[in-house]
Amino acid sequence: MKKVQRVLLLAMVALLITxxxxxxxNTNPGTLEAIKKRGKIRIGVFGDKYPFGYVDQxxxxxxxxxxxxxxxxxxxxxxxxxxxxxxxxxxxxVAFLESNKVDLIMAxxxxxxERSEKVDFANPYMKVSLGIVSPDRAPITAVEQLRGxxxxxxxxxxxxxxxxxxxxxxEQLKFEQxxxxxxxxxxxxxxxxxxxxxxxxxxxxxxxxxxxxxxSLGGQDTIAPAVKKGNKExxxxxxxxxxxxxxxxxxxxxxxxxxxxxxxxxFKESLVxxxxxxK
Length: 279
Prior knowledge:
Elements: H1 2-26, H2 32-38, E1 41-46, E2 48-49, E3 53-55, E4 61-62, H3 64-77, E5 83-88, H4 93-98, E6 104-105, H5 113-116, E7 119-121, E8 126-135, E9 150-154, H6 158-166, E10 171-175, H7 178-186, E11 192-196, H8 197-206, E12 210-223, E13 226-228, H9 232-246, H10 250-258, H11 260-263, H12 268-271
Parallel strand pairs: 1-5, 1-6, 9-10, 9-11
Antiparallel strand pairs: 2-3, 3-4, 7-13, 8-11, 8-12
């Protein structure tokens, strides 16, 4: 009799725990239902990565990623102001999703196998590869030239991962913020920056005395929105949204509004992915 009672008690405890876990999953603050109830979507963006996510002189968040993110909010709520931009750095993007500080990351997030184990990537909206920028007085035109010197990288980026995997003998000087890596190059603390080619090209154009000696390093990657692992409902909505935006060539419009003055028309088709489909 006591054994039966114990079995029944254990069964009831198991059901109670399951109910609590289900309840918690249903109240996940990042679900589409929770976002709609809240009345705004929290999107993680960069505040210091011009021209993709940065804070302008008026204190407003701007950039290519931000332009697309505002359209997401407009189509979700009918009002593009229904978005709360949360500033992140490269190394904190995954953690901000995992801790429910944001619902979505739109911070120039390169899709990699390692990251895909921790977050769910939606379909891409941009193509990118790595590049190397260095001073004109001491140009770096091949990654091998960084041996015996210091390569400047931002923590948590594909630049850091690429060098660690393929060139472990090259010393890396690592920083949390993008502003810090460019200051380090200007100060001569490192020989070159290894980072997304789109960013180093834009920075070199704004900073005389520096050039991109290696415009394409490694293979081509894609940039995509990311959600918390298992958040299928929001992931499906984003993929559907990207497909719908492709019907009106919206990502091209975003390029024209934020990037064309930097890269020009010639770079557009090699950068933009429309409709979530990489060609």
